[in-house]
Amino acid sequence: MLEKAQEATVRNLPDVPIKQFIGGDWRVGGGAERPVTSPTDGRLLAVVSDADAEDLTSAVTSAAEAQRAWRMVGPGGRANALRQAAQRLREHADELALIDALDSGNPINGMHFDVMLGATLIDFFAGIATEAKGETIPQRDGRLTYVTREPLGVVARLVAFNHPLLFAAAKMAAPLAAGNAVIIKPSEETPLSALRMVEIVGDIFPKGVLSVLTGGADLGAAICENPGIAAVSLIGSIPTGKAILKGGADTLKRTQLELGGKNALVICGDADVDGAIAGAVKGMNLGWTAGQSCGSTSRVLVHESLYDRVVDGIAEAFTKVHLGDPTDTKTKMGCLSTRRQYQKVLEYIELAKSEGAEIAAGGEPSGVPKEGFFVRPTLVANVTKEMRIAREEVFGPVLSVLKWKEEPEMLDIVNGLDVGLTASVWTRDLDTAMRLTDQIQAGYVWVNDSSDHYLGAPFGGFKSSGHGREECLEELLAYTEQKTVTIVPTGKS
Hints:
With 493 residues, the chain is of the alpha/beta class. The chain is 37% helix and 21% strand.
Protein backbone atom coordinates (compact mmCIF):
# COMPACT_ATOMS: atom_id res chain seq x y z
CA MET A 1 0.00 0.00 0.00
CA LEU A 2 1.48 3.36 -1.00
CA GLU A 3 1.90 6.04 1.60
CA LYS A 4 -0.38 8.90 0.65
CA ALA A 5 -1.06 12.48 1.53
CA GLN A 6 -4.06 12.34 3.84
CA GLU A 7 -7.41 13.80 2.83
CA ALA A 8 -7.83 15.23 6.31
CA THR A 9 -5.08 17.79 5.80
CA VAL A 10 -6.99 19.75 3.17
CA ARG A 11 -10.63 19.51 2.16
CA ASN A 12 -11.12 17.43 -0.99
CA LEU A 13 -7.44 16.64 -1.59
CA PRO A 14 -7.28 13.35 -3.50
CA ASP A 15 -4.82 10.72 -2.39
CA VAL A 16 -1.41 11.34 -3.93
CA PRO A 17 1.84 9.41 -3.61
CA ILE A 18 4.55 11.05 -1.52
CA LYS A 19 7.42 8.78 -2.63
CA GLN A 20 9.73 8.69 -5.64
CA PHE A 21 8.88 6.64 -8.73
CA ILE A 22 12.13 4.96 -9.82
CA GLY A 23 12.58 1.94 -12.06
CA GLY A 24 8.86 1.22 -12.03
CA ASP A 25 8.69 1.07 -8.21
CA TRP A 26 7.94 3.50 -5.39
CA ARG A 27 10.54 4.24 -2.76
CA VAL A 28 10.99 6.76 0.00
CA GLY A 29 13.40 9.39 -1.24
CA GLY A 30 16.74 9.64 0.49
CA GLY A 31 16.64 13.43 0.56
CA ALA A 32 15.04 15.87 2.93
CA GLU A 33 11.35 15.91 3.73
CA ARG A 34 9.62 18.74 1.88
CA PRO A 35 6.31 20.18 3.13
CA VAL A 36 3.98 21.04 0.26
CA THR A 37 1.51 23.74 1.24
CA SER A 38 -1.50 25.36 -0.38
CA PRO A 39 -0.78 28.86 -1.73
CA THR A 40 -4.44 29.67 -1.18
CA ASP A 41 -4.32 29.59 2.61
CA GLY A 42 -1.06 27.97 3.72
CA ARG A 43 -2.54 24.65 4.79
CA LEU A 44 -0.38 21.55 4.56
CA LEU A 45 -1.07 19.37 1.55
CA ALA A 46 1.60 16.70 1.91
CA VAL A 47 5.15 15.99 3.01
CA VAL A 48 7.27 14.49 0.24
CA SER A 49 10.64 12.86 0.81
CA ASP A 50 12.78 14.24 -2.01
CA ALA A 51 15.21 12.24 -4.11
CA ASP A 52 18.92 12.30 -3.35
CA ALA A 53 22.00 11.50 -5.47
CA GLU A 54 21.62 7.76 -4.90
CA ASP A 55 18.01 7.88 -6.06
CA LEU A 56 19.06 9.71 -9.21
CA THR A 57 21.77 7.16 -9.93
CA SER A 58 19.25 4.34 -9.55
CA ALA A 59 16.80 6.11 -11.85
CA VAL A 60 19.44 6.65 -14.53
CA THR A 61 20.70 3.06 -14.31
CA SER A 62 17.24 1.54 -14.61
CA ALA A 63 16.33 4.01 -17.38
CA ALA A 64 19.39 3.08 -19.43
CA GLU A 65 18.56 -0.62 -19.18
CA ALA A 66 14.88 -0.13 -19.99
CA GLN A 67 15.50 2.27 -22.86
CA ARG A 68 17.19 -0.35 -25.03
CA ALA A 69 14.07 -2.53 -24.93
CA TRP A 70 11.75 0.48 -25.32
CA ARG A 71 13.54 1.48 -28.50
CA MET A 72 12.98 -1.99 -29.96
CA VAL A 73 9.22 -1.71 -29.37
CA GLY A 74 9.16 0.47 -32.48
CA PRO A 75 7.22 3.65 -33.21
CA GLY A 76 3.90 1.85 -33.53
CA GLY A 77 4.16 0.19 -30.15
CA ARG A 78 5.37 3.38 -28.49
CA ALA A 79 2.51 5.33 -30.05
CA ASN A 80 -0.03 2.83 -28.72
CA ALA A 81 1.37 3.16 -25.21
CA LEU A 82 1.26 6.95 -25.38
CA ARG A 83 -2.33 6.94 -26.59
CA GLN A 84 -3.27 4.69 -23.69
CA ALA A 85 -1.57 7.11 -21.29
CA ALA A 86 -3.45 10.05 -22.80
CA GLN A 87 -6.76 8.27 -22.36
CA ARG A 88 -6.05 7.47 -18.72
CA LEU A 89 -5.27 11.12 -18.03
CA ARG A 90 -8.59 12.14 -19.56
CA GLU A 91 -10.37 9.61 -17.35
CA HIS A 92 -8.72 11.18 -14.27
CA ALA A 93 -9.01 14.79 -15.43
CA ASP A 94 -11.24 16.00 -12.60
CA GLU A 95 -8.97 14.55 -9.94
CA LEU A 96 -5.75 15.84 -11.50
CA ALA A 97 -7.24 19.29 -12.01
CA LEU A 98 -8.23 19.43 -8.35
CA ILE A 99 -4.73 18.46 -7.24
CA ASP A 100 -3.21 21.23 -9.37
CA ALA A 101 -5.76 23.79 -8.17
CA LEU A 102 -4.86 23.02 -4.57
CA ASP A 103 -1.12 22.79 -5.18
CA SER A 104 -0.59 25.71 -7.59
CA GLY A 105 -3.46 28.07 -6.79
CA ASN A 106 -4.59 28.14 -10.43
CA PRO A 107 -8.37 27.93 -11.07
CA ILE A 108 -9.71 24.42 -11.42
CA ASN A 109 -11.28 25.19 -14.81
CA GLY A 110 -7.89 26.18 -16.18
CA MET A 111 -6.26 23.11 -14.65
CA HIS A 112 -8.89 20.86 -16.20
CA PHE A 113 -8.03 22.45 -19.55
CA ASP A 114 -4.36 21.70 -18.79
CA VAL A 115 -5.06 18.00 -18.28
CA MET A 116 -6.96 17.76 -21.53
CA LEU A 117 -4.31 19.74 -23.39
CA GLY A 118 -1.59 17.52 -21.98
CA ALA A 119 -3.47 14.47 -23.22
CA THR A 120 -3.91 16.09 -26.64
CA LEU A 121 -0.19 16.77 -26.92
CA ILE A 122 0.61 13.18 -25.95
CA ASP A 123 -1.73 12.03 -28.71
CA PHE A 124 -0.07 14.46 -31.13
CA PHE A 125 3.38 13.00 -30.56
CA ALA A 126 1.99 9.46 -30.72
CA GLY A 127 0.66 10.39 -34.13
CA ILE A 128 4.01 11.60 -35.45
CA ALA A 129 6.18 8.89 -33.89
CA THR A 130 6.88 7.47 -37.36
CA GLU A 131 8.13 10.86 -38.59
CA ALA A 132 11.53 10.44 -36.92
CA LYS A 133 12.74 9.35 -40.34
CA GLY A 134 16.05 9.15 -42.11
CA GLU A 135 16.88 9.54 -45.78
CA THR A 136 18.89 7.99 -48.57
CA ILE A 137 21.64 9.88 -50.38
CA PRO A 138 22.42 9.18 -54.06
CA GLN A 139 25.71 7.34 -54.55
CA ARG A 140 27.83 5.78 -57.30
CA ASP A 141 28.83 2.24 -58.24
CA GLY A 142 26.00 0.58 -56.37
CA ARG A 143 26.95 2.13 -53.07
CA LEU A 144 24.14 2.89 -50.60
CA THR A 145 24.30 5.76 -48.13
CA TYR A 146 21.42 6.21 -45.76
CA VAL A 147 20.71 8.19 -42.60
CA THR A 148 18.73 6.89 -39.63
CA ARG A 149 17.51 8.60 -36.48
CA GLU A 150 18.14 6.93 -33.15
CA PRO A 151 16.98 7.96 -29.68
CA LEU A 152 19.49 9.76 -27.46
CA GLY A 153 19.03 7.36 -24.53
CA VAL A 154 18.06 8.79 -21.15
CA VAL A 155 16.73 12.35 -21.06
CA ALA A 156 15.53 14.57 -18.24
CA ARG A 157 12.82 17.19 -18.39
CA LEU A 158 12.66 19.86 -15.70
CA VAL A 159 9.27 21.55 -15.55
CA ALA A 160 7.94 24.72 -13.95
CA PHE A 161 5.38 25.36 -11.22
CA ASN A 162 2.83 27.23 -13.31
CA HIS A 163 1.40 24.29 -15.30
CA PRO A 164 2.35 21.27 -13.15
CA LEU A 165 0.36 18.49 -14.82
CA LEU A 166 0.37 19.92 -18.34
CA PHE A 167 4.15 20.19 -18.44
CA ALA A 168 4.80 16.84 -16.78
CA ALA A 169 2.48 15.09 -19.22
CA ALA A 170 3.25 16.93 -22.45
CA LYS A 171 7.00 17.07 -21.99
CA MET A 172 7.41 13.32 -21.58
CA ALA A 173 5.63 12.69 -24.88
CA ALA A 174 8.17 13.65 -27.57
CA PRO A 175 11.19 11.87 -26.05
CA LEU A 176 9.13 8.76 -25.28
CA ALA A 177 7.75 8.71 -28.82
CA ALA A 178 11.31 8.89 -30.15
CA GLY A 179 12.36 5.87 -28.07
CA ASN A 180 14.06 7.51 -25.09
CA ALA A 181 13.64 6.87 -21.39
CA VAL A 182 12.50 9.95 -19.48
CA ILE A 183 13.10 11.31 -15.99
CA ILE A 184 10.63 14.03 -15.01
CA LYS A 185 11.57 16.51 -12.28
CA PRO A 186 8.53 18.59 -11.37
CA SER A 187 8.93 21.89 -9.58
CA GLU A 188 9.63 21.39 -5.90
CA GLU A 189 6.80 23.89 -5.27
CA THR A 190 4.10 21.89 -7.11
CA PRO A 191 5.11 18.20 -7.31
CA LEU A 192 1.87 16.45 -6.44
CA SER A 193 0.11 16.06 -9.80
CA ALA A 194 3.24 14.67 -11.48
CA LEU A 195 3.46 11.99 -8.79
CA ARG A 196 -0.21 11.13 -9.19
CA MET A 197 0.17 11.17 -12.99
CA VAL A 198 2.92 8.58 -12.98
CA GLU A 199 0.88 6.44 -10.59
CA ILE A 200 -1.92 6.52 -13.17
CA VAL A 201 0.14 5.81 -16.28
CA GLY A 202 3.40 4.30 -15.05
CA ASP A 203 2.44 0.67 -15.59
CA ILE A 204 1.83 1.30 -19.31
CA PHE A 205 5.56 1.62 -19.93
CA PRO A 206 8.33 -0.92 -19.23
CA LYS A 207 9.82 -0.47 -15.77
CA GLY A 208 12.46 2.23 -15.81
CA VAL A 209 11.30 3.96 -18.99
CA LEU A 210 9.51 6.68 -17.01
CA SER A 211 10.59 7.99 -13.61
CA VAL A 212 9.48 10.97 -11.51
CA LEU A 213 11.91 12.45 -9.00
CA THR A 214 11.16 15.44 -6.79
CA GLY A 215 13.67 17.88 -5.41
CA GLY A 216 15.06 21.36 -5.58
CA ALA A 217 18.04 23.05 -7.18
CA ASP A 218 20.49 20.44 -5.89
CA LEU A 219 18.66 17.68 -7.74
CA GLY A 220 18.53 19.80 -10.87
CA ALA A 221 22.27 20.36 -10.69
CA ALA A 222 22.90 16.63 -10.19
CA ILE A 223 20.78 15.85 -13.24
CA CYS A 224 22.84 18.25 -15.34
CA GLU A 225 26.11 16.73 -14.15
CA ASN A 226 25.11 13.06 -14.49
CA PRO A 227 27.00 11.52 -17.43
CA GLY A 228 24.28 8.93 -18.00
CA ILE A 229 21.75 11.59 -19.00
CA ALA A 230 22.08 12.63 -22.65
CA ALA A 231 19.80 15.66 -22.71
CA VAL A 232 18.15 18.08 -20.30
CA SER A 233 15.28 20.39 -21.10
CA LEU A 234 13.85 23.16 -18.98
CA ILE A 235 10.76 25.29 -18.83
CA GLY A 236 11.73 28.03 -16.42
CA SER A 237 13.53 31.29 -15.81
CA ILE A 238 16.49 32.70 -17.72
CA PRO A 239 18.88 32.38 -14.73
CA THR A 240 17.90 28.73 -14.32
CA GLY A 241 18.39 28.18 -18.05
CA LYS A 242 21.91 29.57 -17.82
CA ALA A 243 22.60 27.28 -14.86
CA ILE A 244 21.42 24.30 -16.93
CA LEU A 245 23.81 25.21 -19.75
CA LYS A 246 26.73 25.58 -17.36
CA GLY A 247 25.87 22.43 -15.42
CA GLY A 248 25.64 20.30 -18.55
CA ALA A 249 28.75 21.69 -20.22
CA ASP A 250 31.23 19.10 -18.90
CA THR A 251 29.15 16.24 -20.28
CA LEU A 252 28.16 18.12 -23.47
CA LYS A 253 24.47 17.59 -22.85
CA ARG A 254 21.86 18.43 -25.42
CA THR A 255 19.64 21.18 -24.05
CA GLN A 256 16.24 22.56 -24.93
CA LEU A 257 15.23 25.72 -23.07
CA GLU A 258 11.87 27.50 -23.00
CA LEU A 259 12.56 30.53 -20.86
CA GLY A 260 11.01 33.86 -19.95
CA GLY A 261 9.89 36.83 -21.97
CA LYS A 262 8.66 40.41 -21.77
CA ASN A 263 6.04 39.92 -24.41
CA ALA A 264 4.72 42.91 -26.33
CA LEU A 265 1.20 43.43 -27.66
CA VAL A 266 1.25 46.22 -30.25
CA ILE A 267 -1.95 48.14 -30.95
CA CYS A 268 -1.82 50.14 -34.18
CA GLY A 269 -3.86 53.23 -34.87
CA ASP A 270 -6.27 51.37 -37.15
CA ALA A 271 -6.86 48.42 -34.81
CA ASP A 272 -10.19 47.02 -33.69
CA VAL A 273 -9.89 48.64 -30.28
CA ASP A 274 -12.42 46.47 -28.44
CA GLY A 275 -10.81 43.37 -29.92
CA ALA A 276 -7.34 44.57 -28.94
CA ILE A 277 -8.45 45.30 -25.37
CA ALA A 278 -9.97 41.82 -25.11
CA GLY A 279 -6.81 40.36 -26.63
CA ALA A 280 -4.59 42.12 -24.10
CA VAL A 281 -6.67 40.79 -21.21
CA LYS A 282 -6.83 37.31 -22.73
CA GLY A 283 -3.08 37.36 -23.33
CA MET A 284 -2.43 37.82 -19.62
CA ASN A 285 -3.73 34.28 -18.95
CA LEU A 286 -5.32 35.50 -15.72
CA GLY A 287 -7.91 32.74 -15.59
CA TRP A 288 -5.30 30.14 -16.33
CA THR A 289 -2.21 30.99 -14.31
CA ALA A 290 -2.79 34.44 -12.74
CA GLY A 291 -0.36 35.83 -15.30
CA GLN A 292 2.37 33.34 -14.35
CA SER A 293 3.12 32.31 -17.90
CA CYS A 294 6.23 32.77 -20.02
CA GLY A 295 4.06 33.61 -23.02
CA SER A 296 1.76 36.08 -21.25
CA THR A 297 1.32 39.59 -22.55
CA SER A 298 3.20 41.79 -20.10
CA ARG A 299 3.51 45.10 -21.96
CA VAL A 300 1.04 46.77 -24.29
CA LEU A 301 2.32 49.33 -26.77
CA VAL A 302 -0.58 51.55 -27.88
CA HIS A 303 -0.63 54.13 -30.62
CA GLU A 304 -1.05 57.52 -28.96
CA SER A 305 -4.41 58.12 -30.68
CA LEU A 306 -5.94 55.17 -28.79
CA TYR A 307 -4.03 55.31 -25.52
CA ASP A 308 -6.70 56.62 -23.13
CA ARG A 309 -9.38 54.37 -24.56
CA VAL A 310 -7.21 51.28 -24.24
CA VAL A 311 -6.16 52.09 -20.67
CA ASP A 312 -9.76 52.67 -19.63
CA GLY A 313 -10.92 49.48 -21.34
CA ILE A 314 -8.29 47.22 -19.81
CA ALA A 315 -8.79 48.81 -16.38
CA GLU A 316 -12.52 48.12 -16.56
CA ALA A 317 -11.91 44.50 -17.58
CA PHE A 318 -9.35 43.96 -14.80
CA THR A 319 -11.75 45.36 -12.21
CA LYS A 320 -14.36 42.76 -13.16
CA VAL A 321 -12.04 39.77 -12.59
CA HIS A 322 -13.26 37.74 -9.61
CA LEU A 323 -10.58 36.32 -7.32
CA GLY A 324 -11.52 33.31 -5.25
CA ASP A 325 -11.01 29.73 -4.15
CA PRO A 326 -9.15 27.92 -6.97
CA THR A 327 -11.24 24.79 -6.39
CA ASP A 328 -14.49 26.70 -7.09
CA THR A 329 -15.56 26.50 -10.75
CA LYS A 330 -16.96 30.04 -10.49
CA THR A 331 -13.53 31.51 -9.71
CA LYS A 332 -12.10 33.56 -12.57
CA MET A 333 -8.59 33.93 -11.13
CA GLY A 334 -6.76 32.18 -8.33
CA CYS A 335 -3.59 33.13 -6.53
CA LEU A 336 0.13 33.09 -7.22
CA SER A 337 1.75 29.72 -6.76
CA THR A 338 4.68 30.50 -4.47
CA ARG A 339 5.57 32.92 -1.70
CA ARG A 340 8.67 33.98 -3.61
CA GLN A 341 6.63 34.91 -6.68
CA TYR A 342 4.02 36.68 -4.56
CA GLN A 343 6.64 38.84 -2.91
CA LYS A 344 8.34 39.54 -6.23
CA VAL A 345 5.10 40.74 -7.83
CA LEU A 346 4.28 43.04 -4.93
CA GLU A 347 7.80 44.47 -5.09
CA TYR A 348 7.40 45.25 -8.80
CA ILE A 349 4.10 47.03 -8.18
CA GLU A 350 5.78 49.22 -5.57
CA LEU A 351 8.74 49.74 -7.89
CA ALA A 352 6.40 50.95 -10.65
CA LYS A 353 4.93 53.53 -8.29
CA SER A 354 8.37 54.72 -7.26
CA GLU A 355 9.36 55.09 -10.91
CA GLY A 356 6.46 57.47 -11.47
CA ALA A 357 3.99 55.12 -13.15
CA GLU A 358 0.26 55.16 -12.37
CA ILE A 359 -1.64 52.15 -11.03
CA ALA A 360 -4.77 52.33 -13.20
CA ALA A 361 -6.31 49.12 -11.82
CA GLY A 362 -5.43 46.82 -8.95
CA GLY A 363 -5.39 47.33 -5.21
CA GLU A 364 -5.92 45.09 -2.22
CA PRO A 365 -7.79 41.83 -2.88
CA SER A 366 -10.93 41.20 -0.86
CA GLY A 367 -12.99 38.15 0.00
CA VAL A 368 -9.99 35.80 -0.08
CA PRO A 369 -7.82 34.35 2.71
CA LYS A 370 -5.22 36.82 3.95
CA GLU A 371 -2.75 33.95 4.19
CA GLY A 372 -3.08 33.30 0.47
CA PHE A 373 -0.87 34.72 -2.27
CA PHE A 374 -3.62 36.73 -3.95
CA VAL A 375 -2.85 39.77 -6.13
CA ARG A 376 -5.48 41.62 -8.10
CA PRO A 377 -4.88 42.12 -11.84
CA THR A 378 -2.81 45.28 -11.91
CA LEU A 379 -2.62 47.73 -14.80
CA VAL A 380 0.33 50.11 -14.84
CA ALA A 381 -0.10 53.22 -17.00
CA ASN A 382 2.14 56.17 -17.87
CA VAL A 383 5.02 53.75 -18.30
CA THR A 384 8.14 54.77 -20.20
CA LYS A 385 10.60 52.44 -21.88
CA GLU A 386 13.37 53.18 -19.35
CA MET A 387 11.38 51.95 -16.35
CA ARG A 388 12.23 48.55 -14.93
CA ILE A 389 8.54 47.63 -14.96
CA ALA A 390 8.74 47.95 -18.76
CA ARG A 391 11.94 45.95 -19.11
CA GLU A 392 11.92 43.10 -16.60
CA GLU A 393 9.73 40.02 -16.47
CA VAL A 394 7.31 40.15 -13.54
CA PHE A 395 5.67 36.76 -14.12
CA GLY A 396 2.39 37.72 -12.55
CA PRO A 397 -0.85 39.67 -13.09
CA VAL A 398 0.87 42.97 -13.88
CA LEU A 399 0.45 44.64 -17.28
CA SER A 400 2.32 47.78 -18.35
CA VAL A 401 0.98 50.16 -21.03
CA LEU A 402 3.30 52.34 -23.11
CA LYS A 403 2.45 54.98 -25.71
CA TRP A 404 4.00 55.22 -29.20
CA LYS A 405 3.70 57.52 -32.20
CA GLU A 406 6.04 56.30 -34.97
CA GLU A 407 6.77 52.71 -36.00
CA PRO A 408 10.58 52.92 -35.68
CA GLU A 409 10.19 54.13 -32.10
CA MET A 410 7.76 51.33 -31.31
CA LEU A 411 9.95 48.63 -32.85
CA ASP A 412 12.95 49.88 -30.89
CA ILE A 413 10.95 49.35 -27.71
CA VAL A 414 9.62 45.94 -28.73
CA ASN A 415 13.04 44.64 -29.82
CA GLY A 416 15.12 46.56 -27.30
CA LEU A 417 15.27 43.76 -24.73
CA ASP A 418 17.35 40.60 -24.69
CA VAL A 419 14.23 38.41 -24.81
CA GLY A 420 11.81 37.50 -27.55
CA LEU A 421 9.32 34.75 -26.80
CA THR A 422 5.94 35.99 -28.09
CA ALA A 423 4.38 39.14 -29.51
CA SER A 424 1.02 40.26 -30.82
CA VAL A 425 0.08 42.84 -33.45
CA TRP A 426 -3.38 44.40 -33.79
CA THR A 427 -4.16 46.07 -37.11
CA ARG A 428 -6.75 45.94 -39.88
CA ASP A 429 -4.10 46.41 -42.59
CA LEU A 430 -2.42 43.34 -44.09
CA ASP A 431 0.65 45.28 -45.25
CA THR A 432 1.17 46.61 -41.73
CA ALA A 433 0.75 43.14 -40.27
CA MET A 434 3.29 41.61 -42.66
CA ARG A 435 5.78 44.42 -42.15
CA LEU A 436 5.65 44.34 -38.36
CA THR A 437 5.68 40.56 -37.99
CA ASP A 438 8.77 40.50 -40.20
CA GLN A 439 10.58 43.02 -38.02
CA ILE A 440 9.54 41.91 -34.54
CA GLN A 441 12.11 39.65 -32.89
CA ALA A 442 10.04 36.94 -31.25
CA GLY A 443 9.56 33.23 -31.76
CA TYR A 444 5.75 33.31 -31.97
CA VAL A 445 3.78 36.30 -33.25
CA TRP A 446 -0.02 36.58 -33.41
CA VAL A 447 -1.95 39.06 -35.56
CA ASN A 448 -5.29 40.11 -34.05
CA ASP A 449 -5.01 37.34 -31.48
CA SER A 450 -2.99 36.39 -28.40
CA SER A 451 -2.05 33.41 -26.26
CA ASP A 452 -3.48 30.60 -28.42
CA HIS A 453 -1.25 27.67 -29.41
CA TYR A 454 -1.90 25.34 -32.35
CA LEU A 455 -0.89 21.71 -32.73
CA GLY A 456 2.24 21.33 -34.77
CA ALA A 457 3.10 25.05 -34.70
CA PRO A 458 6.61 25.48 -33.24
CA PHE A 459 6.73 27.33 -29.92
CA GLY A 460 9.95 28.83 -28.58
CA GLY A 461 11.90 32.03 -28.27
CA PHE A 462 14.56 34.27 -29.74
CA LYS A 463 17.60 35.58 -27.85
CA SER A 464 17.55 34.83 -24.10
CA SER A 465 14.03 33.42 -24.27
CA GLY A 466 15.60 30.06 -24.99
CA HIS A 467 16.50 27.74 -27.80
CA GLY A 468 14.78 24.85 -29.47
CA ARG A 469 11.12 24.51 -30.42
CA GLU A 470 8.32 22.57 -28.76
CA GLU A 471 4.83 21.27 -29.59
CA CYS A 472 5.95 20.32 -33.11
CA LEU A 473 7.97 17.84 -35.16
CA GLU A 474 11.18 19.68 -34.26
CA GLU A 475 10.65 18.73 -30.61
CA LEU A 476 10.46 15.06 -31.52
CA LEU A 477 13.58 15.27 -33.70
CA ALA A 478 15.49 17.06 -30.94
CA TYR A 479 15.47 13.79 -29.00
CA THR A 480 17.11 11.81 -31.79
CA GLU A 481 20.65 11.46 -33.12
CA GLN A 482 21.41 11.04 -36.81
CA LYS A 483 23.53 8.13 -37.93
CA THR A 484 24.93 7.92 -41.47
CA VAL A 485 25.68 4.48 -42.93
CA THR A 486 27.40 3.74 -46.25
CA ILE A 487 27.37 0.22 -47.70
CA VAL A 488 29.86 -0.60 -50.45
CA PRO A 489 29.28 -3.76 -52.50
CA THR A 490 32.04 -6.32 -52.33
CA GLY A 491 34.88 -5.47 -54.72
CA LYS A 492 33.90 -1.79 -55.03
CA SER A 493 35.94 -0.32 -52.16
